[in-house]
Amino acid sequence: MTESEARRSLDAAVVPASLDAIFDLLAEWWEEVGEVAPMTRFGFETAVIEIAGNIVEHSRGESDERRFTLDLFADAQTLSATFRDDGDPPLLDLATVHMADADEESGRGLALANAGVDDVGLRREGDRNVWTLETRRE
């Protein structure tokens, strides 16, 4: 377990290729974070990728050159990720998110993110959507 803080950040275009950059960022960050229970790590990483995928697939805005940032943080107690994107406000209520039925082709991303971490948050700050993910290290 890390005794200090581990931080990594990414500023990227809202395009599918940015998902590869997130995987690379996570790989670097995990090396610095240190020991994390495998299920905690899997759940956190799944949540990060699902939120990133949601931003890439669903965010819309006035600009064709939308961007997002991702900030990863770990200390001895928690793992957290914060996304900020310049898309339009999403029209959803996280309290109503549920897993899609087996015969549906989509609708699992937010439910998987919610299942993977202790807390998922979404708020609007000025002209940015702010997604927060947090989980306790175990």
From TrEMBL:
**For the Histidine kinase/HSP90-like ATPase domain, which residue ranges apply?**
16-131
Keyword Transferase (UniProt): yes
Single GO term (MF): protein histidine kinase activity
**Stored InterPro entries:** Anti-sigma-factor_SerPK, HATPase_C_sf, HATPase_dom
Q: What is its EC number?
A: 2.7.13.3
Superkingdom in the source lineage: Bacteria
Q: Which Pfam families match?
A: HATPase_c_2
Main EC class the enzyme belongs to: transferase
Print the keywords alphabetically: ATP-binding, Kinase, Nucleotide-binding, Serine/threonine-protein kinase, Transferase
What protein name does the entry list?
ATP-binding protein
Organism the protein comes from: Microbacterium phycohabitans
